[in-house]
């Protein structure tokens, strides 16, 4: 069992499709408390910074364009074993491989436009939460 915090973004495809409510409902039903939440939009520069770890991958440019193409919802989530359990809730990166009932199986349309982000480690959860909510007072 590790940390209590993870970070998520509902991506532009899922916001456009009207799935904010459905996805937040699934997050709450899985036992997560939402401790910070905002509708925002990433500039290409900010999206590039957020995904800088992928800057040498062939999909980077497309990813930056997609993630800055429309509004997103950013949130900090709290629960025991937050990171690992959330990765299970969202499912595999490619929705074709995502387990039945996962958020990506339900709402993602392709490996690129895959509805939702989830942090991959406790350390990255802290970095990503600070990236979006550095100036925000958090109520827990
Ligand atoms: O989001 P996740 O941690 O599951 O995957 P990632 O390997 O960290 O990749 C980050 C994001 O890049 C994915 O969620 C996709 O939106 C995108 N991606 C892509 O467009 N094509 C790939 N072959 C792999 C990832
Ligand atoms: Mg990742």
- Judging from the principal axes of the Cα atoms, what is the shape? globular
Briefly note the CATH topology name.
Answer: Alpha-Beta Plaits
Contiguous low-pLDDT stretches (5 residues minimum) are: none
What is the makeup of the main sheet? 4 strands, antiparallel
* CA-based gyration radius: 14 Å
Helix content bin:
40-55%
Record field, number of beta strands: 4
What is the spatial order of strands in the main beta sheet?
2-3-1-4
CATH top level is: Alpha Beta
Q: What is the compact description of this entry?
A:
The protein has 140 residues and is α+β, with helices and mostly antiparallel strands.
Overview of this structure, please?
With 140 residues, the protein is of the alpha+beta class. The protein has one domain: 2-Layer Sandwich (Alpha-Beta Plaits). The protein contains 7 helices and 4 strands, in the order E-H-H-E-H-H-E-H-H-E-H. The chain has helices at residues 12-16, 20-29, 44-50, 60-67, 82-90, 103-107, 122-133; strands at 5-10, 33-40, 72-78, 116-118. It has a 4-stranded antiparallel sheet with strand order 2-3-1-4, with helices on both faces. The longest helix is centred in the C-terminal third of the chain and has 12 residues, at 122-133. 34% of the residues are buried.
């Amino acid at each position: 069992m590790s940390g209590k915090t993870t970070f998520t973004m509902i991506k532009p495809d899922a916001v456009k499709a009207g799935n904010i409510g459905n996805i937040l409902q699934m997050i709450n039903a899985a036992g997560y408390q939402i401790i910070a939440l905002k509708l925002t939009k990433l500039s290409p520069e900010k999206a590039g910074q957020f995904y800088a770890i992928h800057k040498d991958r062939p999909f980077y440019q497309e990813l930056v364009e997609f993630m800055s193409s429309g509004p997103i919802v950013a949130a900090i989530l709290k629960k025991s074993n937050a990171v690992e359990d959330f990765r299970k809730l969202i499912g595999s990166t490619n929705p074709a491989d995502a387990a039945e009932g996962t958020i990506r199986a339900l709402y993602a349309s392709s490996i690129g436009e895959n509805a939702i982000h989830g942090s991959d480690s406790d350390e990255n959860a802290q970095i990503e939460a600070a990236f979006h909510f550095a100036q925000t007072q958090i109520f827990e």
